[in-house]
Structure formats: structure tokens, C-alpha cells
Design goal:
4 strands, Alpha-Beta Plaits, four-stranded antiparallel β-sheet, 57% helix, rod-shaped
Length: 192
């Protein structure tokens, strides 16, 4: 019994009681902080990080939108040039127009067109949207100035062409300015 009295005297002592209340308060506060305030703080930090990520994504999207608007404005500016591009690289081989281009250039430059031949042409190709080519071997005769005029005329035409090979031979041994030259051209034309 005596122990009970000593124990009750110690427990009901004002200092012990104050410390007990203080300990219980801090224990309750720590539980409250752990279960109520900590999730709110974690949510605040995660939302702040998410907001920063969204700002970065928004800036990236704005940059891509600006690029698309820039490309669209360039496309609008080039829309008037689209027929020229289609004429430069047509959708089909158009052999007759290529021959007409060669004949026109030879007539304008006063060279004589001796012969021409074509490389193999695959008209049933499955390749769409890929640039394909056709090779035209042409033999012409004329003096040097007329041959240069022919080449300039071929280059100035709208259809895209590349002169891969030029072979110049001189049938006459005499070197005069008006002597005739024989020229073999390998002209590569493009189509889609």
C-alpha cells in the first residue's frame, strides 16, 4: 500500500502531470503531422514538380506549333511554285515531252540531232513517292558555239535533267572554228 501512495504522490505531482500532458501533446502532434500534414506537404511538392513538367511540355508544344506555323507559311508561299515543281519532276515518264525538249533545244541551237535512245523504263513500278530516272543517250552534230547553246538550252528547260556524260569527237582533222563536232550526251531525266 505504501508503494501505491508513493506512486500516486509521484503521478499527481504538478511537474509530472505537466510533463505527461506535454508528452501526450507531442505524441498526438507527431501522429497528426505524420498522418495529416505530411501527405499534404508531399502532395504540394509533387504538384509543384508536375506543374514545372507541364510548363516544360507546354513550351515544347508551343515551339512545335510555331515550327508548324512557320512551315505552313512557307508552304503557302511556295504554293504558286507547285506547278513548276510538278513540271520539273513529273509523275510519269512522259517520254514524248522529253523528246520534244531535246528537239526544241536542237532546233533553237541549230545542231542536227542524229540519234537518241532510252534506257529501260519500268512503267509498272510499285515505288511511289520515290524519284526515279530515265537515261537518254543522244548523238548530235554542230559547231562548238551551237553545241554550247544546245547544252545551255537543255539546262534552262523546266524539266529537271542532269548531263551525266559528254563525249566530243571531231570527224575532220582540220581545226577550223566552224568545223563540225560530233557529241554523245548521256542525259538523265527524273520522274516520280
Amino acid at each position: 500500500m505504501e508503494d501505491k501512495k508513493k506512486l500516486s504522490k509521484i503521478i499527481f505531482n504538478p511537474k509530472v502531470r505537466d510533463f505527461t500532458y506535454l508528452i501526450l501533446f507531442f505524441f498526438t502532434l507527431s501522429i497528426f503531422i505524420f498522418f495529416a500534414i505530411r501527405p499534404a506537404i508531399v502532395s504540394i511538392f509533387s504538384l509543384t514538380r508536375e506543374a514545372e513538367d507541364l510548363k516544360k511540355i507546354n513550351n515544347l508544344y508551343n515551339q512545335k506549333i510555331d515550327e508548324i506555323v512557320f512551315l505552313q507559311s512557307q508552304l503557302e508561299g511556295k504554293r504558286d511554285d507547285l506547278p513548276y515543281l510538278i513540271e520539273a519532276i513529273p509523275n510519269f515518264v512522259q517520254i514524248n515531252k522529253r523528246l520534244e525538249d531535246i528537239k526544241t533545244a536542237s532546233a533553237k541551237s541549230s545542231v542536227s540531232l542524229k540519234s537518241f535512245s532510252f534506257s529501260d523504263i519500268n512503267l509498272t513500278s510499285e515505288q511511289k513517292d520515290e524519284v526515279r530516272s530515265i537515261v537518254i543517250n543522244t548523238e548530235i552534230e554542230g559547231n562548238f558555239e551551237n553545241l554550247m547553246s544546245f547544252i545551255k538550252e537543255m539546262i534552262s528547260q523546266r524539266r529537271l535533267k542532269k548531263i551525266d556524260k559528254i563525249t566530243i569527237t571531231k570527224p575532220e582533222p582540220a581545226a577550223t572554228s566552224s568545223s563540225q563536232l560530233k557529241v554523245n550526251l548521256m542525259i538523265e531525266g527524273y520522274y516520280l
